[in-house]
Design brief:
About 45% of the residues lie in helices and about 10% in strands. The protein has about 300 residues and is α/β, with parallel strands linked by helices. It has one domain: Alpha-Beta Barrel (TIM Barrel). Strands 1-2-3-4-5-6-7-8 form an eight-stranded parallel barrel, surrounded by seven helices. The longest helix is centred in the C-terminal third of the chain and has 18 residues.
Length: about 300
């Protein structure tokens, strides 16, 4: 649970949560709780349930609520956040916020809802929705709701309301990343782009929230600890390993991430509700990469 008056608690690694499915594509809640505990065992600062990597737009509201509750149960005290504004209407979103609060999450996440072409509307919408919760709120430039990008000016205005503690930045260019860092104040700009992760840390980003954390959170925790303790050369090398992981799961994510989780000992099907279909060749490639990562001491 988050503590009041400690903004640095929002720094660090926000490990994303996948949604395991049975063969009929119903949610496998037993596997989910086991996976959440495994993610928490890597000691990230936060777990992010009901996110893009969770296939959140393919889930019903009831499924999203139960997923958040299940992850909280498996997290062992690691703070959990979950997206809470996916319903189509304003009134439904207000109710969604209340229901998500009741799951025991420590914070809520609001997506920018496709208002990227009208920054004033984006600000008003997010600021007003935040008045319906007492929990800390993280912002999420989710590409699934394009246009989704938030300007540095808008982010700075939202931070000044005192309701928003972090943002998952998906602009993927250093000038736009730096634009938000310049106005982050006591909040935490979290980087989602892997190639620029090390450079973003050097520029002042205060954490990471990226797809490969679903199956390699331990590497991100290692890099964050190294960077935070001034071990810059070690952090740079770990970033190189993270880039290799990112490339390994690219093309077929999030099915590839689910399969890599299974290779690490957590029973999980790679089924998704999307069109992913990992053929024998793709699975073999992941097998080979994982064996190399173990031999290199990158993964266990």
């Amino acid at each position: 649970m988050y503590q009041k008056d400690n903004m640095r608690q929002f720094d660090g690694v926000w490990a994303l949560i996948l949604t395991p499915f049975h063969e009929d594509r119903s949610v496998d809640f037993t596997a989910l709780e086991r996976y959440a505990a495994w993610q928490a065992s890597h000691k990230p600062q936060h777990l992010f349930a009901v996110c893009g990597s969770s296939e959140m737009t393919s889930l019903t509201l009831d499924e999203r609520i139960q997923i958040a509750s299940t992850v909280v149960a498996g997290a062992g005290g690691v703070p959990v956040v979950a997206t809470a504004n996916l319903e189509p209407s304003w009134f439904a979103q207000v109710e969604e916020v209340k229901r998500m609060e009741s799951t025991g999450v420590s914070g809520l996440v609001f997506v920018t809802k496709g208002y990227g072409n009208d920054q004033d509307r984006m600000f008003t919408y997010l600021a007003e929705l935040s008045t319906h919760t007492q929990l800390p709120v993280m912002l999420y430039e989710c590409p699934g709701f394009s246009p989704h990008k938030m300007s540095g000016e808008t982010y700075g205005k939202l931070v000044k309301t005192g309701r928003f503690v972090a943002i998952k930045d998906t602009t993927c260019t250093m000038p736009l990343i730096k634009e938000k860092i310049a106005v982050q104040g006591e909040s935490s700009v979290l980087q989602a782009n892997i190639p620029y992760l090390f450079e973003a840390y050097r520029a002042g980003a205060r954490g990471v929230c990226a797809t490969p954390t679903t199956c390699g959170a331990q590497l991100f925790v290692k890099m964050w600890d190294e960077f935070s303790h001034g071990k810059i050369d070690e952090a740079r090398q770990t970033h190189q390993h993270i880039c290799l992981l990112d490339n390994a799961i690219d093309g077929g994510f999030c099915a590839t991430a689910k399969y890599l989780v299974k290779l690490q000992g957590i029973e999980m099907n790679w089924y998704t509700r999307g069109s992913h279909n990992l053929n024998a060749q793709r699975l073999k490639a992941l097998d080979v990469w994982y064996e190399w990562a173990k031999d290199a001491g990158i993964m266990k």
